[in-house]
Amino acid sequence: MGKCVNRKELYPTLNSDAAILPMLEEKLGYFFFDKKILSRALTRPSYARENQETTAGQDQEAYFVVGSNLLQMVFAELLLRQGYQTRSQIRERIKELAQQEKLATLGQTLGIAYRINLSAEDRQQHLEEDPLALAETLVAILGAVYFDGGFRTAREVTLRLFQNELPESPL
């Protein structure tokens, strides 16, 4: 296995979250009022356990739940407005839009790979390149946007991020 490299080694000028988070926020098109919310959305459960933050619930899992439901809601609304009428049509299209590969690619585009807080073991396994970790982190970030800025803001960010994937016209 290769050498374990963390983001601060890859980006030596970025010596703190204070330097890293604004770059991500700029790409998201949303600046968090509470930076701790974004930081938590970037924190994998293994990192929280490794740093004994588990009892405080300081990992991304809760934001992932919120983000998953947010995606469902925003996509369903848009699809209804675009002419999708049946539950099966909407579910099938949402399934396509929220595929792990698409979420991971979008996460890579945003540059979240080296912003994810990973445990030492996860870094050794290059989990920052894992499509599941990228997808889950992106969804957690969307949940964090909702928690920090409300539904309208989270909806706008989601639509902007997925603009190339979303339908322009009905079936």
* % residues in beta strands: under 5%
- Average per-residue pLDDT, rounded, comes to 84
Number of strands: 0
Overall structural class, as computed from helix and strand content, comes to mainly alpha
Radius of gyration, taken over Cα atoms and rounded to an integer in Å: 17 Å
Proportion in helices: 55-70%
Give the end-to-end Cα distance, rounded to a whole number of Å: 47 Å
Major pleated sheet:
none
Which stretches are low in confidence, meaning pLDDT under 50 for 5 or more residues running?
Answer: 1-16
Shape: globular
**What order do the helices and strands follow?**
HHHHHHHHHH
Describe the overall structure.
- This protein has 171 residues and is mostly helical.
- The chain has helices at 7-10, 17-28, 35-41, 45-50, 61-81, 87-97, 100-110, 120-124, 131-149, 151-161.
- The model is unreliable at 1-16 (pLDDT under 50).
What's the short story on this structure?
By secondary structure, this protein is mostly helical.
Write the layout of secondary structure elements.
Layout: H1 7-10, H2 17-28, H3 35-41, H4 45-50, H5 61-81, H6 87-97, H7 100-110, H8 120-124, H9 131-149, H10 151-161
Features:
mainly alpha, single chain, globular, disordered N terminus
